[in-house]
Amino acid sequence: MCRWLAYSGRPIFLDTLVSKPCHSLIHQSQSATECLAATNGDGFGLGWYGAWDEPGLFRDAMPAWNDDNLKSLTHQISSPLFFAHVRASTGTPTTRVNCHPFASGRWMFMHNGQVGGWDRIRRRLEARLSDARYHERHGSTDSEVLFLLLDADDLDADPIGAMRSVLAETRRAMIEAGVDEPLRLTAALSDGQHLHAFRYSSDDRPPSLYWRQGDDGITVVSEPIDAAHDQWTAVAPNTVLTVEPGGRVRLDDFEVEIERWVGARVALA
Amino acid sequence: MCRWLAYSGRPIFLDTLVSKPCHSLIHQSQSATECLAATNGDGFGLGWYGAWDEPGLFRDAMPAWNDDNLKSLTHQISSPLFFAHVRASTGTPTTRVNCHPFASGRWMFMHNGQVGGWDRIRRRLEARLSDARYHERHGSTDSEVLFLLLDADDLDADPIGAMRSVLAETRRAMIEAGVDEPLRLTAALSDGQHLHAFRYSSDDRPPSLYWRQGDDGITVVSEPIDAAHDQWTAVAPNTVLTVEPGGRVRLDDFEVEIERWVGARVALA
Amino acid sequence: MCRWLAYSGRPIFLDTLVSKPCHSLIHQSQSATECLAATNGDGFGLGWYGAWDEPGLFRDAMPAWNDDNLKSLTHQISSPLFFAHVRASTGTPTTRVNCHPFASGRWMFMHNGQVGGWDRIRRRLEARLSDARYHERHGSTDSEVLFLLLDADDLDADPIGAMRSVLAETRRAMIEAGVDEPLRLTAALSDGQHLHAFRYSSDDRPPSLYWRQGDDGITVVSEPIDAAHDQWTAVAPNTVLTVEPGGRVRLDDFEVEIERWVGARVALA
Amino acid sequence: MCRWLAYSGRPIFLDTLVSKPCHSLIHQSQSATECLAATNGDGFGLGWYGAWDEPGLFRDAMPAWNDDNLKSLTHQISSPLFFAHVRASTGTPTTRVNCHPFASGRWMFMHNGQVGGWDRIRRRLEARLSDARYHERHGSTDSEVLFLLLDADDLDADPIGAMRSVLAETRRAMIEAGVDEPLRLTAALSDGQHLHAFRYSSDDRPPSLYWRQGDDGITVVSEPIDAAHDQWTAVAPNTVLTVEPGGRVRLDDFEVEIERWVGARVALA
């Protein structure tokens, strides 16, 4: 389990959210409270949209809490749309290529959660990657595969639908492999214009996710970054929150319809 | 505050103590219980005596808990006398040169604790280093300075006395700089034959320190590494435990007599 | 292109070969002479057989030339059979999981060279991995895939044959993908008893490989580690050198018979 | 010996100079041509002025040539005044705190060269640091000491004079310690408004330094970063080049008058 935050709004310096609040993401790297792992010290990452369509990325395998580069960069860089992530490995190596966010072209993605039975479905899902995305596979996390499965064409046409397809594919792989453990995740996805934040679980225990409308913009977080808990609203389970370019927030049901697909396949057989 | 362990006895593989017990040092790197900082993720180190008079050193600035090198090395290396340390920085950078143990010639040292008002006395203590030891100053921790102040000649003649002198010098510097905070420490020191483990505080709250006589040898730890708490004995405050080459354990008072020295100086004035 | 050395014989300290000679492997990390890349600064690794059937591994993504851990470990560790490797990346990330040697059970492997058209055949070869080995894929190098393709059962029965099969499979994948570039490699493989060193190219330009019979044992190197050039013998192209447990050296032709296989397939069609 | 570049002018993206030219600084990290060490792989650093008076800093102990963070940051960050540096250690550890640039308040500094007999004068020069600057000593390089010796008040009043004083102090320490080796350096110093680039040697062999007036601004480099060698002008030995806020370039003699000072001291005695 990891911790993350995403922001969309007027440009602000990244440290406004990443390090200055009392329970900032950097604080959560040592003392997270709403997840099993209090320590999220297996690397960190920043991604931000700035001068180009493609986001900037800064990732390192060190803990976030004492990193001078992270302090300086979040103090210097301002952005209207950025991601920050602290990682708690669930088994894969502590290395930059396993750190979030992931980016390809103008799309950026980060993830927290658990893909049940990952070892039993990894090769099936990797086999589904397009040739182009296969070349971008550098690490060994489930998160990177989920991102690379998001086909570029699908993302451009319908990012929420693309995410639903990838999770449906993942759930199918789990079912066919006889995996009993759930798929639980939160994730953030952006093209530099829209911010999509997903909270989903195949059982009734999705990881926590909150959002807040502030003066400058919208912040979405794994857990509140300050003590003003009444200002933070939990995103409902199986919901996707979208911040549109003008700042409008939409909350949509996000169901992954695996049963219907199975039915269709049976009907066809 | 950091966590450490030291062993002297029949040669054993380092993972016997460093990673295998349920509350091993690696476990303590994420979940220490008897100190303020539960997380000791700002680097780690091993030091061991093997084929040569000089100990081997392996130190890294990464957390200990997911480090494959640490796993493999502690599994492969056996030694009759070794140190292991996980670090929680109190402000100095997370970098290898600030990681413990420190070694010079055949002497090896590691440390946990707090030198009150360090910023106000650092330059005075560094000015006391011999020319030879001054060249070995690579980092910026108080721990490295304490070690480098231990003069090689004094160490060879009387290691406990050398340690007492260094702490007296440190206390004098604190007093003269008007420092109110205490000096609290545990430390381990070895020449490859004897193991000395110090527990000292200028007030009544020294950091915790325990020891156990096992079948193979003596283990000294910041906190017990397993659930057999009745087998671990607390080292009394202001005491030095010495394991002699044959395995005999001595416990001696370890007082740092700063008043008498001040008196002498006054008398001379 | 990388540089490596392998040793089999009486136990010696690793620095005897890794750092002490005038053109030692550490020296080659900055100033290799017989390959395109003079600098091999994208990480390094050690693997050695010691107390257990499984080798110890120490790998880091830093350059070898200034690494204090490497200096201390090669000075302290002695072994009758060990590998050392300095890496020059040909595009994949500089990260520990891409560093050599690779190990699985008691087998250890390292590699230098070029698999032509790797991007076009990677997914085909990864698809050939057994389920067990697929889980061990952590990085993104061609080298790790070559190692993981070496099936454990085949290795135990006939390691040279297993290597021949993997290279034949690789060559077939290259041919079917229309790759014109050659497959050129040197590689070392060991089970802790035998040392196999391969020099192979699909064209007439295999990477350099030399060996020397010394007083203590056999050393195999990418390029001579000292100025006594007349003591080093080039391994002939398409040859495998084997050092048997007692120290006997065998040199066998190592041809990868891809044509015959293609012919057989045509005949069957 | 290291390699560096500094820029002052209209804001440009850092990769314009740091990575895009054919012999860019990143290229020089592997293949420098005008210095003894072709490889400058012992870490790197960026410093740039942006939204605040204090510069941003990004430093890492890895080689520059394959660092994805460096690629992304230089592509995203634009600045009217920035420094970049690749390091070749002359003995001190490869660690972030020994990487350039160094910054304190709004001042930033980087350095290349050789302080003869450093080990014999280090403690004398460190003893000259103000208390405030002493606390900022984190590493063990001569470069960091030169920077910390630049007193903040002196810098604000007369930066060139402050640099002259520090080098005079250094030369005096060398002479009094009986050091025969020369003091040779290039260095860059800025307050975010002015850029000062020094080329100095106590003998007749100062390290190389070049500058170019381009359409956007002034670039100063250890060695030309492209093949248009006729566009680059060597800075004369014992000269300081200053770029003023409006872009005007001044070239002033930069002599370090140690003899006269010694004479004056004698006269006063």
From TrEMBL, chains A, B, C, D:
<keyword id="KW-0808">Transferase</keyword>
<dbReference type="GO" id="GO:0016740">
    <property type="term" value="F:transferase activity"/>
</dbReference>
<dbReference type="InterPro" id="IPR026869">
    <property type="entry name" value="EgtC-like"/>
</dbReference>
<keyword id="KW-0315">Glutamine amidotransferase</keyword>
<dbReference type="Pfam" id="PF13230">
    <property type="entry name" value="GATase_4"/>
</dbReference>
<protein>
    <submittedName>
        <fullName>Class II glutamine amidotransferase</fullName>
    </submittedName>
</protein>
<dbReference type="InterPro" id="IPR052373">
    <property type="entry name" value="Gamma-glu_amide_hydrolase"/>
</dbReference>
<feature type="domain" description="Glutamine amidotransferase type-2">
    <location>
        <begin position="2"/>
        <end position="254"/>
    </location>
</feature>
<dbReference type="InterPro" id="IPR017932">
    <property type="entry name" value="GATase_2_dom"/>
</dbReference>
<dbReference type="InterPro" id="IPR029055">
    <property type="entry name" value="Ntn_hydrolases_N"/>
</dbReference>
